[in-house]
Structure formats: structure tokens, C-alpha cells
């Protein structure tokens, strides 16, 4: 029974990876850069995305895929409200997006009009780590109120990312958060990761983050 279950899970992941490769190829044909943003609930994914879009627009033409476990459109409406195309993806209760859902969302976009697609994954530090979506990079957003022990408690999600964005640094004077301890946990798992400290509220650090991202986008175009 255990062996059969492992085989089934492996088959599902293999199919998922194949769809992810197809998505990656299609986006690259259109010279579109894409990133998968993961975080725990409340880390500030949507607020950071909106800050990022504001800094990149109008030079970079963007769209956002919003993943949620329930059919709510709150985040998608926020993105649409600033003039950026947003597609809501309902996972039907699953704790992560998968390549097939992302592919369907991408099919609803006019790819000829885009330079960047941002995928906002479901708020979770466990499930999304195992599922490839076909994006160019994976990014984790952490935040000061979450505590500095997350890399030690949830190591898998940090291993396959290209950037770590530490959000809400405006709260550092009020929260016991050891940045050095947190960063050491990240780099032990992923020595090559890019590390950014930002505040989506005040805008601090956003320029460095978006400059790095703009360079990545330009390299693909």
C-alpha cells in the first residue's frame, strides 16, 4: 500500500513538472519573465507586489496570477485597481498552486502585451515548495512579525529560491527579530540566495529589490 502511494505521488509530480516545462517554454517564446512568490499568510505578498509593480511601471508591462484556496477576489481586485491585469486562481482548497492551474491562468492573458508575470502562491511555507510552476525564479517573502526562526522550522521552502525578501523592516524597533540569525539560517540552506530588506509600507529597500528584478527581466528580453 505504501509503495503504491509513493508511485502515485511521483507520477503526479512528474506530470506537473512536464506542464511546468511547457509553460516556461511558452513564456520564453514571448520573452516574458515570471516569478513565483511564496510566503506565510500575512507576510505582505500583495502589498509587496503592488509596490513592485508601481516601481516597474510603465516601463515593464506586468500581470499577476492570484492563488487562493477559496473563491475570493480581494487581492485580485487590489491589483486590478492599479491598472494591472489580474487573474484569480481558486485551488479548491488545496494549499498550493500547481503547474496546471498556473497554465490555465496564463492562457487567460494576452502574452504579446507582457514583459512580466508574477504568480502569488497560496499563503503557506510547506506545500508550495514541492510544486514547480514553470516560473523563472522562486521568491520567498518573510516578515519581521513572523519571527526569526522560520528557516530552521520550515527549511524546504528556502532551498529552491533565488531571492528572499524580508518585509516590514519598519517594525524592527518594536519586534525581537535577529536579522543575522535569520539570514544565517537562510544562507546555510541556500548560499547563493539574494537577500533584500524592505518595507512595503514606507518603501525602504524597494529600489534595490526592483533594480535586481529589472535586470533579470531585461536579460530575458
Describe the structure in your own words.
This protein has one domain: Rossmann fold, CATH 3.40.50. Helix content is 41%, strand content 18%. It contains eight helices and seven strands. α1 runs parallel beside α4 and α2 packs across α8. The longest helix is centred in the N-terminal third of the chain and has 28 residues. The protein is globular, with a radius of gyration of 17 Å. The mean pLDDT is 93.
State the gist of this model.
The chain has helices at residues 2-29, 45-56, 74-80, 99-107, 150-153, 156-159, 179-189, 206-220; strands at residues 33-39, 62-68, 86-90, 116-120, 137-143, 163-167, 194-197. It is α/β, with parallel strands linked by helices.
Structural class: alpha/beta
Distance between the termini: 49 Å
From the alpha carbons, calculate the radius of gyration and give it in angstroms: 17 Å
Helical segment count: 8
CATH topology: Rossmann fold
CATH superfamily: P-loop containing nucleotide triphosphate hydrolases
Mean pLDDT: 93
CATH class: Alpha Beta
Q: Estimate what percentage of residues fall within beta strands.
A: 15-25%
Helix content: 40-55%
Q: Can you count the beta strands?
A: 7
* Poorly predicted sequence stretches spanning 5 or more consecutive residues: none
Shape: globular
Largest sheet: 7 strands, parallel
| Overall CATH architecture | 3-Layer(aba) Sandwich
Strand order of the largest sheet: 3-2-4-1-5-6-7
Number of domains: 1
Amino acid at each position: 500500500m505504501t509503495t503504491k502511494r509513493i508511485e502515485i505521488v511521483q507520477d503526479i509530480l512528474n506530470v506537473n513538472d512536464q506542464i511546468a516545462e511547457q509553460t516556461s517554454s511558452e513564456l520564453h517564446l514571448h520573452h516574458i519573465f515570471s516569478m513565483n512568490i511564496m510566503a506565510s499568510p500575512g507576510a505582505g505578498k500583495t502589498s509587496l507586489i503592488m509596490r513592485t509593480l508601481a516601481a516597474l511601471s510603465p516601463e515593464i508591462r506586468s500581470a499577476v496570477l492570484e492563488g487562493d484556496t477559496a473563491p475570493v477576489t480581494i487581492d485580485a481586485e487590489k491589483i486590478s485597481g492599479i491598472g494591472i491585469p489580474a487573474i484569480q486562481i481558486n485551488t479548491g482548497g488545496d494549499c498550493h498552486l500547481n503547474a496546471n492551474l498556473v497554465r490555465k491562468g496564463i492562457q487567460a492573458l494576452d502574452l504579446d502585451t507582457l514583459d512580466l508575470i508574477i504568480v502569488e502562491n497560496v499563503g503557506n511555507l510547506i506545500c508550495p515548495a514541492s510544486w514547480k510552476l514553470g516560473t523563472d525564479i522562486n521568491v520567498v517573502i518573510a516578515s519581521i512579525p513572523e519571527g526569526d526562526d522560520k528557516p530552521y522550522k520550515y527549511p524546504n521552502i528556502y532551498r529552491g529560491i533565488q531571492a528572499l525578501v524580508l518585509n516590514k523592516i519598519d517594525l524592527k524597533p518594536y519586534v525581537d527579530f535577529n536579522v543575522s540569525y535569520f539570514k544565517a539560517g537562510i544562507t546555510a540552506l541556500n548560499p547563493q540566495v539574494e537577500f533584500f530588506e524592505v518595507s512595503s509600507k514606507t518603501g525602504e529597500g524597494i529600489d534595490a529589490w526592483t533594480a535586481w528584478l529589472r535586470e533579470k527581466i531585461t536579460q530575458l528580453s
